[in-house]
Write a structure and sequence with these properties.
6 helices; Rossmann fold; alpha/beta; two-stranded antiparallel ribbon; six-stranded parallel beta sheet
Length: about 220
Amino acid sequence: MTASTALALDLTPGVNAVSGRIHALLEGRARILVAVAGAPGAGKSTFAAELARRLNAQRIAAQIVPMDGFHLDNAVLDARGLRRRKGAPETFDAAGFLHLVRRLTAGGEVVAPIFDRARDLAIAGAQVVPGATRVVVVEGNYLLFDEAPWRDLVPLWDLAVRIEVPVEELRRRLVQRWLDHGLSHAAARARAGGNDIPNAERVLARALPAEITLGSAPR
């Protein structure tokens, strides 16, 4: 990977920069994988959606594959005493996700799970990445994370993008996320402070280098 490049906070310059790099990488290649990493609440989904929209508008078949489809089921988390830490690295099927990413690099059609946030569960076989997909945009918290086995993902990315946001802004967004899910202000603050923010701090503390570093996508 090349040295990290700091870009503007606005979404459009970031998408321009990343899509330009993707065009160069695609020359002579059937498929590339782009990682969009960052802490919870950083705006990864927003950025990934706009990037995929731009590429598809340019007639480059692109699809988003979120890491969140590999959340362990709540029953498994309960059995392991991890329900209150849902979203931490150990609450995902990391080995399964690594296997999926390796399949994506190999090309061809790949079936993947997705996470239904409203129902708080992963749904197997809910997403199909067609063989003709040229750019797979993978988004998630732990794509550039220096713990086993997550660090084994890094060589698989053709381009790695990180979205960075100050912790206090992350806190505001994460509280709002839980308010939007119907929690009271006290419960939302407790949920964000007791789980989401520790996960965010862990991401920041163990972050591996990205080729492009962006400020937050507008929310």
